[in-house]
Every structure is written in C-alpha cells, then in structure tokens.
C-alpha cells in the first residue's frame, strides 16, 4: 500500500541565501559545461532581479527545489556570462544550418529582446508545480513592463532536458551472466537476432512534461548532445537504466507564451 505524504511548498523571490541552491539547479541544465557558461554569475544575476523570478522550497528547507526565471540576454549583452551563453547556444545549433542562422539573426537584432528562461527543479518534484510558477512569471513580466523595466521580450529561449531510450547496460550484464551460466552447464541455445531500431524510429522524451507543450509553440527546435565524460557517475547511472540524456533548444515567440500557461 502506497503512503501519501503531504508537503507544503513555499513560493519565494530568489534571495542571496539561495545562491548555492540556484547554482545547483542551473548545473542540471549544462552538466559538465556548467563552468563554461558561468552558472555562478547567472545565479548572482537571477538573485539581483527583484521583480522577476521565483523559487520553491518545501517544509522550511533552506535550498530551493525549483526555479523559474527569465533573463534579458539583449539588455545584459555586455555581461561575460551572457556572452558565454550566447556563444554556447550558437555553437550547439551549428549543425542545424537554418536554425543556426535564425538564432544568430535574433541575437544580432538589438531592437528585439531575447530572454533565456531557466526552468529547473529537482527530479522528485511534482510536475504540477510548474503551472503556478509559469502563471507567476507571466504576471511578474507584465508588472515589470508596466514599471518600464527591461522585460519586454520578442522571443523566449528554453533549454529543455530530453532523453531517448537505449539498450540498458544492466540488461547486457544480466545477459552476459546468463550466457556464462549456460556455457558452464554445457548447453547453449542458438542466438536470437534482435531487431535494431533505426535512428529515425527512436523517439525523444522530455524529463519535464511541460516542455512538450512549449515545443508545440516553438518556432525553433534544436537538439544537441551533452559533452561526454565517460567517467561520470551520473552518465553511467543513466546508461544503466537504458537512458541517453541530451538537450533541446526551444525558441518561442513571446506572443505564444500565453498559450503555454
């Protein structure tokens, strides 16, 4: 019988005490390349925005379990961390020639402001938490614009966490053990051919279900692989479970944002 646990969630503005928690959440987006885009500097920038952005904490915990905020990349174009992120996004989109050209054109147009939206939460957080957070963000952006703050955007950029299913390394290990035992007993059945799935048949899934809706209204969708370090425990754990994580850049017109919430 499943046990139901009631948890009280608190919605807060990002504060200085949240620095390390926010940095940890941002590291989930960039993984091994987090230092390249300087997530520490982005954490400071997020905290400095008093009118836009929210965190979620549970039962009085100090560290935030979820974060949703928007950073004006055009307004903050002179900041090193924003420049690093711009270079990162353009590099990751380079294999998709048309999308790369569109993204580069958007970054070059100083009359239209682009926002990077950081939508992060711990993996065990209920996805239902995203709806009130997105509604709060929409209200905050509207209020900030009413006060002539730099939050009037033409496009929103999301970096979504996606994955595809691959053959589990655990299955391989079990298969190897079984074959060894059979050989030890002196008999070995004829090997059965496994049907290989074509790359085009391998679907991608979202870690956060709301990203599927965001993709529906995106004018650009660009997939890229994560930088690989074979020794990392997290990558090995994903492969054990038969999951290969990657990322998807989604660019949504601000006029479509209301459809998401």
Automatic annotation (TrEMBL):
Pfam annotation, one family: BCCIP
Q: Name one GO cellular component term.
A: nucleus
Q: Which InterPro entries match?
A: BCP1_family (IPR025602)
Record-stated family: Belongs to the BCP1 family.
Q: What is this protein called?
A: Protein BCP1
The protein's organism comes out as: Batrachochytrium dendrobatidis (strain JAM81 / FGSC 10211)
